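Field reference: sequence -> structure
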Amino acid sequence: MSTSLTPRTFLVHGLVAGLVGGILAFVVAFAVGEPPIDDAIALEESASAPAEAGAHSHEEGAAHSHGEEEGAAHSHGDDEAGGITRGQQAGPGLLTATVLFGLVAGGVAGIASAFAVGRLGGLRPVASTGVVVALAYLAYTVVPWVKYPPNPPAVGSGDTIGERTALYFGFVAVSLLAVVAAVLLVRALLARGPWLAVVSGVALYLVVVGVAAVVLAPIDEVPDSFPANTLYSFRVGALATSTAMWAGVALVLTGLTARTWRARQADELRRARAAAL
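Structure field:
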């Protein structure tokens, strides 16, 4: 392995890739993820409006004396929760969240790629880096999304949020550990043939996550009255946002790795020619 492709180099490359991925995720989330959230918030407000109106009509004519309270309760889109408005959440808040997550994901992917170089058979650094990011995307995003697809606001009980969070991240942990075990199995079986090794690794991963998917309790708190198109749009938007982030990480990280690798090879070639003279 080239001495220029150190863990520090991969970490820096990963952070740059994560920054780009986070910005891409923000663009996609703002374009396709925020509209379904606004629709869900509107549904939540419209559903709570009749109940609040009944609660405020306990005296004749009292319904007209709560203008300020009702205005505050019904302005979810402009409401300030902790001093943050809905517009700030969908703008600077969303950008901050996606960039921070991108930096973490990119940094972890960079370190994992540094560890993987030279340990995935005959794959070169660029190829092994691409494999690492692809596996991270599948194990962290796609597979958990299939088991526990995200729900928009107004869906889910506040009393079960702790249980739902534990189930989701528990499944994510199983998925990540399973993909690590699968990679180790592939490495152990490579001497017997690449096809056997890869098929065995894929089978191990599918069995582990399949068992986990059956054992872990399902989460189904979407009311029958919730519009299917809003739910579908929100879930697709969430997946598209994560996909954009990982795509940005993959493109930038592999691109920077390829540039460093080519520069190192060119430097070694110059040194070899100089030594031969």
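Note: Residues 11 and 111 are 6 Å apart (CA to CA).
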